[in-house]
Amino acid sequence: MKNYIYMDNSATTPVKKEVLDEMIPYFIENYGNPSSIYSLGSKSKNAVESARDKVAKVLGAKSSEIFFTGGGSESDNWAIKGIAFANKNKGNHIITTKIEHHGVLHTCEYLERKGFKVTYLDVDEYGMIDINDLKNSITDETILITIMFANNEIGTIQPIKEIGEIAKEKGIYFHTDAVQAVGHVKIDVNELNIDLLSLSAHKFYGPKGIGALYIRRGVKLDSLIEGGAQERSRRAGTENVPGIVGLGKAIELAYENIDENNEKLITLRERLIKKVFDSIDYVRLNGHPTKRLPGNVSFCFKFIEGESLLLSLDMEGIAGSSGSACTSGSLDPSHVLLAIGLPHEIAHGSLRLSLGDFNTKEEIDYVVEKLTEIVQRLRDMSPLYEKAKEEK
Amino acid sequence: MYSEKVMEHFRNPRNVGEIPDADGVGEVGNPKCGDIMKMYLKIEDGIIKDVKFKTFGCGSAIASSSMATEMVKGKSIDEAMKVTNKSVAESLDGLPPIKMHCSVLAEQAIKAALLDYSNKNNIYIDGLEDFDPTEDPHDHH
Questions:
Q1: Nearest residue to A210 (alpha-carbon basis) of A172, A182, A190
Q2: Is A145 helix (H, G, I), strand (E, B) or coil?
Q3: B37-43 — which CB contacts under 8 Å span 24+ positions?
Q4: Which of A195, A217, B102, B130 has the most CB within a 10 Å radius?
Q5: Average pLDDT, integer, range A113-137
Q6: Domain co-membership, A160 together with A267
């Protein structure tokens, strides 16, 4: 078999060597607790604060507005529950979208069970919200708008600046789940009027299990994890020092050459899309053609099912993922693909290939070659394809 | 996630295709659920001489179809009627719980093809009285 080709960078990324090198000393030599007053503790404390500065710099925020968490899901839970519980005297209404990550969707459903009202905005065929829908959904009771920066399945980037302006004008808190965007898209929280932002290190070549929540100064929210006085008494628990150091290094690297990197990624992405459309029929691109993450490609192949496609790709040494939740314990097709209006049978045939820094032109060509063979093989087995040919 | 047997049948499915002059054709499942199986039978003197299938579905749906065709090929109608979802799953060294409906579909596809044969030829097949090919296999979880 050829070398393994990894095209699931939206699921997770490998830790870069430079990142791991910075982390290692904080496991063995500099193991002090950042809260301890002796010098070993101070070393850890300084490392944590230096990483905080790096995150703040990238987002155009103040260091005191960055709080480390256990990852994207914790950040989402904290932002949404924290705002809801701390502001329930002002109102009980939250606005989000139908295509959020489950970290947001399930948190909103939890709050509904606790008596909050949630509006789930529709999206168009590209996965984009309608700004007028958002405006019309706002009531006197609205306390939070939580809308993802970029979608994890189809890559569509939302009109964050316009959302931020509306939220600011109406005096409503704006949280964005930017887990897929941070490290890949330039973000300035002030320019975009973002009040809270979730990010996760393993999406940009940092370690797993570490993330952050940006909280604008003055934003009132409850803590999710009670305990010690870490993170300015807002998120208890001894800091994951090596993880935080890794996050800091990874975010710094990600933005060092971001324009160049993205140009390279977009070229690869467009090559992949064009080649697939040239070699395979009955295929559609999901998500917005241009307003999408640099590395995200999402297709639906008619007449075949996503899981058998993934298994076949894996047999050729190619790792991708399906929008269909088939492998994750649910047989229903993805809520995102249904929200953009795809019928069930088409949503079942989805494939996401998410490109990263280590993918090459040669890999793209190899993947398209194999994909073409696999799609044809599965279609030759499919009674739906047989019918379509007869109708043609 | 899958047994070696499932993967082997997925990689090299047996009896894929159509039989243009089939004596019985059965189609079960629906595209909404993400799986459809179509089974073709060639029957002579009560013996299944040939069998082919086409399947739209996940890896275990394709493997279950393939295994089911092997289990009925060359067998009598009575023997084919004894193929159950359990025996298909067991022959594949098991299926994940969430995929058990695939083996149910395989059993139903065989029975649906036999029912078609029975209706076309006015031949009574013991055990098909209560068979409903439109029953949702997802209820069998």
A1: A182
A2: strand
A3: B37/A383, B37/B61, B37/B65, B37/B105, B37/B106, B37/B108, B37/B109, B38/A383, B38/B109, B39/B65, B39/B68, B39/B69, B39/B109, B39/B110, B39/B112, B39/B113, B40/B113, B41/B72, B41/B113, B41/B114, B41/B117, B43/B77, B43/B117
A4: B102
A5: 98
A6: no
- The pLDDT tens digits of the residues spanning A237-267 come to 999 999 999 999 999 999 999 999 999 999 9
**Percent of chain A having pLDDT more than 90?**
94
> DSSP letter at B16?
B
* CATH code linked to domain B4-120: 3.90.1010.10
Q: A266 with A248, same domain?
A: no
pLDDT digits (tens, 9 = 90+) for A303-326: 999 999 999 999 999 999 986 444
Contact (CB<8Å) B10/A333 = no
Residue A84 labelled as part of a binding site: no
Q: Is residue A63 part of a domain?
A: yes
Q: Which range marks the domain in which residue A61 is found?
A: 17-256
Question: What is the tens place of the pLDDT at every residue in A221-245?
Answer: 999 999 999 999 999 999 999 999 9
| Residue A5 belongs to a domain | no
In this prediction, residue A387 has a pLDDT band, given cuts at 50, 70 and 90, of: confident
> Minimal Cα–Cα distance from B34 to chain A, Å?
6
Per the structure block, which two tokens stand in for A22? 């910075």
**Average of per-residue pLDDT across A109-133:** 98
Sorted by where each begins, the domain ranges of chain B are 4-120
Encoding tokens for residue A57? 């710099």
- What pTM, to 2 d.p., does this model score? 0.94
Q: Is position B58 annotated as part of the catalytic site?
A: no
Beta strands A66-69; A93-97: pairing state: unpaired
Do both A263 and A344 map to the same domain? yes
**Is A93 annotated to bind ligand?**
no
Question: B32 in contact with A at a CB cutoff of 8 Å?
Answer: yes
Q: Which residues of B touch A386 (CB under 8 A)?
A: 18, 54
Residues A324 and A352 in one domain: yes
Q: Please judge whether B55 and A381 are an interchain contact, meaning their C-beta atoms are less than 8 angstroms apart.
A: yes
- pLDDT by 10s per residue, chain B, length 141: 899 999 999 999 999 999 999 999 999 998 887 899 999 999 999 999 999 999 999 999 999 999 999 999 999 999 999 999 999 999 999 999 989 999 999 999 999 999 999 999 999 998 898 888 887 766 544
Q: How many angstroms separate the CA atoms of A100 and A93, rounded?
A: 17
Question: In Å, how far is B124's CA from the nearest CA of chain A?
Answer: 28
Cβ-based neighbours of B73, under 8 Å, separated by 6 or more? B15, B48, B50, B51
Kindly state whether residues A203 and A282 are assigned to the same domain: no
Query: Is-catalytic flag, A108?
Result: no
Does residue A289 share a domain with residue A244? no
- The verdict on ipTM greater than 0.90 is yes
| Type of residue numbered A365 | D
Give the DSSP letter of residue A328: G
